[in-house]
Amino acid sequence: MNKTLRTALFTIGLAQFLKIPMKQLKTGKWDWSLFFETGGMPSSHSAGVSSLATYIALKRGIRTIDFALATLFGLIVMYDAQGVRRQAGELAIQFNSLAEEVKKLENDPKQHVYERKKERIRERLGHQPIEVIGGALLGILTGAIAYFLDRKF
């Protein structure tokens, strides 16, 4: 497999894994399902594209079209992760709250519409800016380490 691609995929997996102990430090609970969730610190989207761009920059140089494409792609992904997807998550929070309020206002035991709704709309979709920055820094670090390990061996 392409070493650049392998570096980016490894970094995405590492970022997803790091969400588990980081959440444990906050809540005191281990939640292994976070490995498959979106959102949270660090952003695996940012980590992946940053490691890709870093590896390419070090391997091919910053004046190459490869680096330009990876950087532009990375900026779009990071903007989307903290912009559009975060807004969608905030809308999901509002929708879930509204559904709970409607249920409270109904106060009619014959109406079980909202009791049947076992699953809430997913609220963790995007990232706070600090999570995107954390992912980008992780990606830069892993991209550089992978490049220097590649050169050494």
From TrEMBL:
Transmembrane segments: 130-149
InterPro entries assigned to the protein according to its UniProt record, in alphabetical order: DUF212
Keywords, alphabetical: Membrane, Transmembrane, Transmembrane helix
Protein name: Acid phosphatase
Origin species: [Anoxybacillus] calidus
